[in-house]
């Protein structure tokens, strides 16, 4: 009797393993997506909650948590197909749900390069990863989510949480989907051959520019917070940073859409560049300030991870080291020197310096990818043939120009659309918290505090946010526990 169960169970499962499904590729894609998801939740939730002043720990962490959930619902309802669906405009896809079973269980497909070239030939045929659409939808969701969460880093410590709740779906819909479709989903930059292996432009440049723009419209933190804004827990900040670093294996390793040699190269290059950048940033801190800063090291780590992202699977290891040296020094210079001398940069209160760590580093990564992209590695990943960096001659010099134009489009679109979104929300509600909320912090905004220590936490309202709906229920349960003891 027991033996007969085996073939029956096997027969029932064969329909879930079609001939085209590669279990290894599918497993790697789901693992990569989960690693990227963990960069946001709990990675950036922990990082944001600990790198800010104690009174903003809850609010900062919650901005990240809310964005992760909100983006997912918007993504499967309409935004995925705007990013990777049928073409509506040269830079935008048609909106539609990604929820139906027939859609999600079929084989995933990537954009076709249907553009005809001067010799009348079609560039490539359709690429079909060996896993279902459900894996692709989930993988691309975690990238969309982390983009919005990174943007939030510019707005911590003063944005009205209700305005943020409106901002997230609006920015995802009208900004992120445009960049994603243009560069990844079959849009005009994709066909033109602009290189963005894993989001240097789509994710980091866009979040840095949009965050800086939104910070301008939201306004600055309180004067007291701008003058002194110490982390409330440096060790916990390092834990969040560590999750961010390790999660980048999925961030860059998952973008070949298969477990191949390109994904291995991408993971190794990612770690090489991040480590180099961290060391360079730390050395510069020691040389000019005589002390190695832990926060500075984290910033150097992030700029390295960001810089390698657009070229992780396209450059060789020696180029990753050069990119790490540049990402550990140029953003350091823009943050420590240029920022302090620029009236515009001084005017805008970018809480976590997202402009420097993501916009500057993202553009730097895209530019250096155009210089160092190796032809054989490009052929493993890119749809446009004969792609190469400037140092390899041929069409490489044109590639640098393409990278600059691609960055210009992403920058311009984000400045304009983010401005429109902020002004539209401002018609409905304030973008900035009230002065009372800015003074008190989490207790005023959420009725909750991160650390109920040293006399804090007295204002916590358990009838609204606690385990019990009212004091009567609380007293009855407490009484029962006492009697049991």
User: What spatial form do the alpha-carbon principal axes imply?
Assistant: globular
- What is the mean pLDDT? 89
What is the SS-derived class? mainly alpha
CATH homologous superfamily (4th level) name of the largest domain? Ammonium transporter AmtB like domains
- Uncertain runs are 1-12, 113-126, 468-485
Count of helical stretches: 21
Q: Which percent range fits the helix content?
A: 55-70%
In the sheet with the most strands, the strands line up as 1-2
Text of the CATH class of the largest domain: Mainly Alpha
End-to-end distance, in Å?
51 Å
Classify the fold: give the CATH topology of the largest domain. Ammonium transporter fold
Description:
- This protein is mainly alpha-helical.
- Mean pLDDT is 89; it is low at 1-12, 113-126 and 468-485.
- A two-stranded antiparallel ribbon has the order 1-2.
- It has helices spanning 2-14, 23-51, 57-84, 101-104, 133-152, 161-183, 188-192, 200-218, 223-227, 234-253, 261-289, 294-308, 317-341, 343-347, 354-372, 375-381, 396-426, 435-440, 442-445, 462-465, 471-484, and strands at residues 87-89, 92-93.
- Helix content is 67%, strand content 1%.
- It has two domains: 32-80 and 135-438, Ammonium transporter AmtB like domains (Ammonium transporter fold, Orthogonal Bundle); 454-484, no CATH class.
- Its main location: membrane.
